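Hi support team,

I submitted a single chain yesterday and got back a structure, but I'm not sure I'm reading the token output correctly. Could someone confirm the output below corresponds to the sequence I sent? I've pasted both exactly as they appear in my results page.

Thanks,
R.
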Amino acid sequence: MNIEEFAYGKSMVHRTDPRIRIVAALVFSVVVALTHSPWAAAVALVFPTVLILLAGISIRRVLARLAIVNTFIVFLWLILPFTSQGEILYAVGPLKVHDEGVRLALLITLKSNAIVLALISLLATSPIVNLVHALSHLGVPDKLVHLFFFCFRYLHVIHEEYHKLANAMKIRGFRPRTDRHTYRSLAYLVGMLLVRSFDRSARILDAMKCRGFKGEFYILGHYEMRRQDYLVGVTSVIFSALLLVVR
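Hi R., thanks for writing in. Yes, this is the structure output for that exact sequence:
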């Protein structure tokens, strides 16, 4: 379970100030989310795609991430074209495919992929510690920063606890089926995982308090803006502004 598989590299994108990348990802995502034009959403794919190529990220791994998102989008394609209003493109038996539904499904697909690609190219190319540091410099409330950091820090711990419980069930002969016993067993698994997570969090909090934690992380280093940081920031703002014009 490697969340930071894209975080380390020597490309220009990896070396860009994480504060600039956070702001650029936020502005770009908001603009793309608000657009109503499939053409503008399609154009929006260009910017993150170029960044991914500059970062030297494995295309195969990026496509694997996109496959997860598009798995859910497939269900929209199975529903929206048949349930929306508008001109009928063609009929499949009693089912009628409407142009408005196709347009909406296409728009959602393009926007989702553009935003995910932007997050991968701008945020996933930075270690979580650097993102937390940058969020603090950007004035994000400390509680939100801590929540974000601890969610990442102990996500793999919860993942390991899940595997321990799942393996224990398999050793005892559990085999998932579509019956009441399976549903009840999975519910017990989720409940026990929540209980163990709560106990672990209490022990971690006590340990941190024993070490003098008072709800604040002290920042010793500071970022300095360079020419390439301004270049990435200005480019992202110009591209986002062009999307507003296209829409």
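A quick pointer for reading it: The mean pLDDT is 86. Let us know if anything else looks off.

Best,
Support desk
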